[in-house]
Amino acid sequence: MKAVGVHNSLPVADPNALEDVEIPTPTASGRQLLVRVRAVSVNPVDTKIRMTAGSRLDFPRVLGWDCAGVVESVGEQCTEFKAGDEVYYAGDVTQPGCNSELHLVDERLVGKKPASLSFEDAAAMPLTTITAWEAMFERMAIAKNPKANKERSILIIGGAGGVGSIAIQLAKKVAGLKVYATASRPESEQWCREMGADEVLNHKEELEDECKRVGIEGVDYILCLVGTAQYWRSMADIIRPQGKLCLIVDTEANQPVNINLFKPKSVAITWEFMFTRARFQTADMAQQGVLLSDAAALFDKGKLQHTRTEHFGNLEATNLLKAHAKLESGSMIGKLVLSVA
Fold first, then answer.
1. For the chain, which domains are there?
2. Helix, strand, or coil (residue 126)
3. Would you tell me how many other CB atoms lie within 10 Å of the CB of residue 204?
4. Which residue, 239, 307, 309, 336, is the most exposed by fewest CB within 10 angstroms?
5. Between the CA of residue 42 and those of 218, 268, 283, what are the distances in Å?
6. How far, CA to CA in Å, does 122 sit from each of 20, 54, 245, 292, 306?
7. In this predicted model, what pLDDT tens digit does every residue of 96-121 receive, in sequence order?
């Protein structure tokens, strides 16, 4: 079958960084679904793995962890899906990705595709929705109850990206929080407001000063979606006593952070990595599929909106490389997708 893969880790400017390849068609077994891919999206994890996949690989590394498609066949232990079902999912970063005509995925990681969304719009949503949902409702244990959160607030640092775009919606429309987001360009600020942010701060300025500018005296939760060390001290100042902080970006070895800054306020610090359940085959792995199906219902009710903003054509190496370049430029608002013919 056709796929796009990596044989050598190369910079995005090199036309050989991604290649059109032919790979064997897989067969579903156990709890696996074989999905005919209809659309894919691209995330920062794709660009990072492309650059660290290795050199002179005998078999191409296929990337891609955002997919919408139709179940082609199922393994003998599958109970949740059947051939013909429309699905969407992010999958397992330890397994081959979905930049291919057909793709294997564990059914426990899969949700029913929102009926109201096209395959392209649905493909934009799994990875970011899982990340934002787990970060807020599981890691920080925010109640999905506006009455319980009437006086509570969240700061989302990096609000215009893929995760930020859906996190703003979940925080506002599901949890009922007062939502503050950060952005630095007029177009990204406008996007955050369209997603539901009550106020938008400029993250290129000192966040403490930006908080004073809009009258923020502190927040109960912080979801940091960008460089952790860059905002470490600011987050310690802004968060309220007994607040909760969730991080998704690795700290750098040459930028150590002082966790003691958060001790006086008894702040809970947690991490979100949406591939944890799949990587470690956790007992609650199926919760990811449940989460996606719950989110699908919210999309279909109109409570959430998709965050696809760009379409890069059909899935082929040239177009996918352009998509990687867009992400690496740091100017992406929302999500981009490619169709699979």
1. 2-125+281-339 (3.90.180.10), 129-271 (3.40.50.720)
2. helix
3. 11
4. 309
5. 34, 31, 28
6. 24, 31, 29, 11, 7
7. 999 999 999 999 999 999 999 999 99
| pTM over the 0.85 mark | yes
CA 335 – CA 326 distance, rounded (Å): 10
- Residue that is written with structure tokens 């923020």 in the block: 216
**Backbone dihedral region for residue 325 (phi beyond 0: left; psi -120 to 50: alpha; all else: beta):** alpha
Angle at 168 between CA 306 and CA 49, to 5 degrees: 70
Residue 279 near residue 94, CB atoms below 8 Å: yes
First to last CA, the chain: 12
Token output for 139: 């890691």
Q: Scanning the structure block, which residue is given the tokens 């009455």?
A: 147
Q: Tell me the two tokens of residue 285.
A: 């792995």
In this predicted model, what pLDDT tens digit does every residue of 185-212 receive, in sequence order? Answer: 999 999 999 999 999 999 888 899 999 9
Whose tokens are 């890069």? That residue is 312
Residues whose CB falls within 8 Å of the CB of residue 39, separated by 6 or more in sequence, listed in order: 67, 68, 69, 118, 119, 120, 122, 123, 337, 338, 339, 340
> Can you give the pLDDT at residue 175?
98
- pLDDT the model gives residue 252: 83
Least confident segment among 3-7, 252-256, 263-267 = 252-256
Sign of CA dihedral 218, 222, 225, 227: positive
State how far the Cα of 311 lies from the Cα of 281, in Å rounded to an integer.
33
Radius of gyration (Cα) for the chain, nearest Å? 20
Residue recorded with tokens 């067969």 = 27
